[in-house]
Amino acid sequence: MNVSDNYRDNWESYWRGTSDATGEAIWDCDPALSAEPHSKLFLPHADTTRTIVDLGCGNGTQTRYLATRFARAVGVDLSHAAIEHARRAADGAPVEFQQLDLTDTGAVKALHDRLGDSNVYMRAVIHQSEPAARAAVAAAVAEIIGSEGRAFVVELTSGSRDVLKRATDDPEGPPAKLRRVFDHGLKPADADDQEILRLLAEAGLQVLADGETTLPQTEYLADGTRIDLPARWFVLAGK
After folding, report:
1. Domain span holding position 135
2. Can you give the pLDDT at residue 2?
3. Is the pLDDT confidence value at 1 over 90?
4. Given strand 119-123, what is the order of strands in its sheet?
5. Please, are residues 184 and 10 in contact by the beta-carbon 8 Å criterion?
6. CATH number at residue 137
């Protein structure tokens, strides 16, 4: 199935209302806190001569870092507005961006046909996808890596809900960047931990390595503590 019009519109409105300022999106952390440490975990398993595809790239901050570690980097996102942000921010960097609905199996296959078996970087996409679309997102990872590519996937765990509840329970309400996420109808940490494992397995993805981590955000709790969301990472291969 393709994503619903409401879901697509929510992301378009979110990114249209987001400036090009670094870190305005709550998940737009410095690559030193995300793609860089993730690459250290991923590179022992990945062929860096292959393209890496950043699924759900947003404004492309992590994609631009990945372009320094792999022969070619392509960022894709459901939102046209996000891709416009990414292209502006690229400013001549050797990276490519395109709009792509990961639930559009024909478009995903066309991307694989164009790039060949590629590596995938996907950070916190399944957990906030619509329930009926999550299997297709996992299947897109499998399609793009084929038999020779590898994937690095990070998804929020149920522990993230406790952190988000702490942020939203503040007497003054959630901090501004988190409030914008809720105001646009986006639902972080919406998938259960076992659902993520099931979806990856059903897509034919084999776990080569995994571990616990956090996804640092660009927003802070009322006491000044940075919001770091508990997560789990996976290095995946096709079967």
Report:
1. 5-238
2. 67
3. no
4. 96-99, 72-77, 51-55, 119-123, 150-156, 226-238, 205-220
5. yes
6. 3.40.50.150
